[in-house]
């Protein structure tokens, strides 16, 4: 049969490239399953009692697969937090692309954070839980501090706020935003619009 007339394509031979691509895709899917399982296990069992077996039970993957991706449970937790912080950073940067005035920028940033916390409730809640257990600020603060600091500097230059955006004041504003994120992630009663309004007003009040 003429393959050009049949409308069917002959499968390419399975070579090293095809096998390598399949392996890479499989590893990526495993990493996603493990990352989600780490977050669910952490929220289900708490940081004190969390063990690798909980992650395996949640993910449905084997022990060898887990250790192919992470040397230990602590590394898996750090990777989960690092991945969430990177994704948040991208969302924060993107939020400012079409916002021009300081007020528009702050509203866009707070809105992006509330939206991120609602759309990524599992990793956000897990990151906040592990940071609270370890008695340290969550890694999610870093992208918020970086972008919020930039917005507040612009607001000060434009005369929108009177106080100079110092590190301590910026961290205080970020603490308010982190609390808003926790409220969103844990599905409290407030609407996203109410949370955004509260966050914008609270940030401006700190710098008046």
What does the model show?
There is one protein chain. The protein is mainly alpha-helical and 208 residues long. The protein folds into two domains: 15-70, Arc Repressor Mutant, subunit A (Orthogonal Bundle); 78-208, Tetracycline Repressor, domain 2 (Orthogonal Bundle). It has helices at 3-6, 16-49, 52-59, 63-69, 73-95, 102-119, 121-134, 141-157, 167-185, 192-206.
The parts where pLDDT drops under 50 for at least 5 residues are: 1-12
Output the CATH class name of the largest domain.
Mainly Alpha
SS strand fraction: under 5%
CATH fold-level topology of the largest domain: Tetracycline Repressor, domain 2
Task: Furnish the topology, listing elements before pairings.
Layout: H1 3-6, H2 16-49, H3 52-59, H4 63-69, H5 73-95, H6 102-119, H7 121-134, H8 141-157, H9 167-185, H10 192-206
Helix pairs in contact: 2-3, 2-5, 2-7, 5-6, 5-7, 5-8, 6-8, 6-9, 6-10, 7-9, 8-9, 9-10
What is this entry, summarized?
This protein has 208 residues and is mostly helical. It has helices spanning 3-6, 16-49, 52-59, 63-69, 73-95, 102-119, 121-134, 141-157, 167-185, 192-206.
Characteristics of this structure?
208 residues; mainly alpha; Arc Repressor Mutant, subunit A; Tetracycline Repressor, domain 2; 2 domains; 10 helices; 76% helix; disordered N terminus
């Amino acid at each position: 049969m003429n393959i050009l007339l049949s409308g069917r394509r002959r499968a390419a031979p399975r070579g090293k490239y095809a096998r390598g691509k399949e392996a890479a895709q499989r590893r990526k899917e495993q990493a996603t399953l493990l990352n989600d399982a780490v977050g669910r296990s952490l929220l289900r069992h708490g940081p004190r009692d969390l063990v690798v077996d909980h992650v395996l039970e949640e993910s449905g993957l084997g022990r060898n697969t887990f250790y192919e991706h992470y040397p230990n449970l602590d590394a898996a937790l750090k990777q989960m937090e690092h991945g969430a912080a990177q994704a948040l950073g991208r969302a924060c940067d993107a939020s400012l692309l079409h916002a021009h005035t300081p007020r528009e920028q702050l509203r866009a940033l707070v809105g992006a954070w509330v939206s991120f916390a609602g759309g990524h409730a599992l990793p956000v809640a897990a990151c906040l839980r592990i940071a609270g257990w370890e008695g340290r600020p969550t890694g999610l603060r870093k992208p918020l501090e970086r972008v919020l600091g930039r917005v507040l500097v612009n607001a000060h230059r434009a005369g929108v706020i009177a106080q100079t955006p110092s590190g301590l004041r910026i961290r205080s504003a970020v603490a308010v935003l982190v609390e808003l994120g926790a409220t969103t992630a844990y599905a409290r009663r407030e609407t996203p619009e109410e949370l955004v309004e509260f966050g914008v007003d609270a940030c401006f009040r700190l710098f008046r």
